[in-house]
Design brief:
The chain contains 7 helices and 7 strands, in the order ααβαβαβαβαβαββ. With about 190 residues, it is an alpha/beta fold. It folds into 2 domains: about 100 residues, Vaccinia Virus protein VP39 (Rossmann fold, 3-Layer(aba) Sandwich); about 40 residues, no CATH class. Strands 3-2-1-4-5-7-6 form a 7-stranded mixed β-sheet, with helices on both faces. α3 links the parallel β1 and β2. The relative contact order is 0.16.
């Protein structure tokens, strides 16, 4: 199995806005802890660096990742890039889809051990994503809230998450902030 440093090095060219080394490290640490047969969701995935990293470190973790697409490349090109990167890393436990998280959640039926949300930053959309996806996380599961503290660029993300956790006291616990990623644990 590759070390954390080897994984970071192998994926450093996989652009992921706002993701730094410490953001990747915490995903590696948490994904390694997940039991075989567990599920993760990573949405707003872009070029899928965080999803690929989580899949690389735990072959028993099935990672579902999706995005609504990008403005700088066609959806087909994006899907091909993710497929090639998975092949480069020997990743076979990643399922990539083009789609909107707020639509996909309506039919979601799997318990989540890991949830990575790369929110777009507006209040209403972030609120929907948090309210619809957080309940799917199992007790003992981990949530990564990307762009929680991106130099104040998306204050609505922090506002939504803080309010949701205040409204659900005793169900979640804040973990550390790693660069731009807030870690949240479901109790």
């Amino acid at each position: 199995m590759k070390t954390t440093e080897e994984i970071i090095e192998a994926t450093k060219g996989y652009f992921c806005y706002g993701i730094e080394k410490e953001d990747v490290q915490i995903r590696i640490e948490e994904a390694r802890k997940m039991p075989s047969g567990s599920f993760a969701v990573d949405f707003g995935t872009g070029q899928a660096r965080t999803a690929i990293v989580m899949a690389m470190v735990n072959p028993g973790l099935t990672v579902y990742t999706f995005d609504i697409g990008r403005s700088d490349m066609t959806n087909e090109a994006l899907a091909e890039r993710v497929h090639v990167r998975c092949a480069e890393q020997g990743v076979v436990n990643l399922k990539y889809y083009l789609g909107d998280a707020k639509v996909i959640v309506k039919d979601w039926d799997k318990p989540l051990h890991l949830l990575n949300i790369d929110a777009e930053g507006d209040y209403e959309r972030t609120l929907i994503e948090v309210e619809e996806w957080y309940p799917h996380v199992v007790s003992g599961g981990t949530i990564f809230m990307q762009s929680y503290n991106l130099n104040g660029k998306y204050p609505a993300i922090k506002e939504v998450v803080d309010k949701y956790l205040d409204d659900h006291l005793g169900q979640y616990k804040f973990g550390e902030l790693y660069h731009n990623t807030k870690v949240i644990y479901k109790l």
